[in-house]
Amino acid sequence: MRRSGLRWSVIGTLLLAMLALLAAGRATVIMIYLGVAYRDEVDPISQPLSFYEFVDGGSQLLTSAVVALAVGALAVLFGMARAGVRLAGRPTVLFTTWALCLVLAAIFPTDDSPRILTFAGWVHQFAGAGILALLSFAGLAAAPRLAENEPWRPVVGLVRALSVAAAALAVVYVVSRLNDWIPGFVSVFGGVDPGGILQRMALVFHGAVVAALAVQLVRVSWPAVRPRAGPWLPDPTAPSAAPPC
């Protein structure tokens, strides 16, 4: 009975990993679709994702993608905790706050003006800053905890690399936005405003961090789910055959 309960617990962890993978994949596919289907309304190179809020049909898709990514992050976080990874403290706080920022950015749309004029616009701006920054810190904070567990060590380097790459893209994105305060600064990028594509690339790396952790969670959980054939043992209650005369 105890072994059966343990197996069902591992199946629950595996389902959380699959949910995280599906959520990250859904978010990525929707963002790609938005960039292609609405390229005439929103320039994916220069305009941020929040501009889809003002496109007919774009707002619902953007909200779906953002919420899916938040659900994926929380699912993999919960699944890793069930798998025995010590994430209490800073990693859990950062992952959870990042997911909360995603939800807040979806609930509170940005202002349709060059300047922030409303409370919703300010909430969106602060949540957007949290989205760009916090997951990189979460991944870097989780890496040492992952290294404490032998089954999780293969993914440590990948999580660190993806987190650093996302942080670098976020920094370049912030630099590109300095044109809002220093007119003409965009000339540093050859006269092209790359803010939109930089933001999207950072989010892709964020999704990759979630996916990498989810894939490793599947690898860790799957062997415990598969039935294992144990060695044959004789039944002590069965009558023994009489020795030949």
Key traits:
mainly alpha, single chain, disordered C terminus, 245 residues, 6 helices
- Please state the overall shape, judged from the principal axes of the Cα atoms: elongated
User: Separation of termini?
Assistant: 44 Å
Beta-strand portion reads: under 5%
**Major sheet summary line:** none
Secondary-structure element pattern, one letter each = HHHHHH
Class of secondary structure makeup: mainly alpha
Low-confidence segments, ≥5 residues, pLDDT <50?
Answer: 229-235, 238-245
Oligomer: single chain
Number of strands: 0
What's the helix count?
A: 6
The whole-angstrom Rg is 24 Å
As a percent range, the share of helical residues equals: 55-70%
User: What is the overall pLDDT average?
Assistant: 83
Structural features, described:
By secondary structure, the protein is mainly α. Helices cover 67% and strands 0% of the residues. It contains six helices and no strands. It has helices at 2-37, 58-82, 90-107, 119-147, 153-176, 195-225. Helix 4 packs across helix 6. It starts with a helix and ends in a 20-residue tail after the last helix. The model is unreliable at 229-235 and 238-245 (pLDDT under 50).
Architecture blueprint of SSEs:
Elements: H1 2-37, H2 58-82, H3 90-107, H4 119-147, H5 153-176, H6 195-225
Helix pairs in contact: 1-2, 1-6, 2-3, 2-6, 3-4, 4-5, 4-6, 5-6
